Predict the structure.
Amino acid sequence: MSDIENDVESDSGDKPPRKTAANATPAVSIAKRQTTRRRVLRTILLTGGVLGAAMSGFLPLVYAQKKRLRPPGALDERDFLGSCIKCGQCVQVCPVSAIKLADLVDGMGVGAPYIDPRAQACDFSCDAVQCILACPTGSLTYHKPAFLQVRPGAALAAKPILIAKEKDAEPTLNMHERIGVARLTRPEACLAVQGKGFKGQTRGPDFKGQLRYMSVDRWKPVKVSSHPYDVAECDLCVRECPVKGAISIETVFAPDGSKRKSPVVHEPCVGCGVCEMVCPVEPAAITIEAGEVWKI
């Protein structure tokens, strides 16, 4: 067998064909592909950045559809945002940490104090509305200056009586305007309307909210999860409301003419949010409408 035939037999095996100069990828093509890939990635990142910037301006408008519940004594929203310097002093003095500072989605309101009553309501454990005392600018105030009008329905008919101070020489809170109003927004879910009771931890064992229970400690708020309930007919919103006469369980007529029990909110309601915080159904049957006024 000739040397040429041996070469043919050795090349006819399973080994892959060798790359030749004709089929090898030029180095220029590799560099071009890498450059194109970098351009595509840069375009994607720039597009994401532009969309992110656009959304950062759009999100505050979306969140603005839901009003923030401001601390007691807050001026009307526009005046409040115009005068609050976001110092956080009101946050520091709140004994139940009900006051938080808003984040970036609030746009102009970023850093402004607000209350999320479902997470932690204002139960007036401070007795003296200390957030107002701590405010250095008058954004939270006992009395509005003369040039700022009180919106119809925002003013309280009288200073609210704090149940925890009812036996004190001065049982009232120095508040002249409400920060919101409680509404039974989901009556079909309300246990009182259904004639049902409640037993157990109202928001579950992991709930971190605090509340001042007079039967436990006159001065120190405790975790709601450490205070289980056992009531034949649910009345937690009335039982724990810190303001006298703000809410009660009344006999009402249903659309079909039948009688049933239901929470009824009254004029002394200041919008503190305790009723929303302790409501055992999810979502809460009773909620606070921030900045709402009293309507007969």
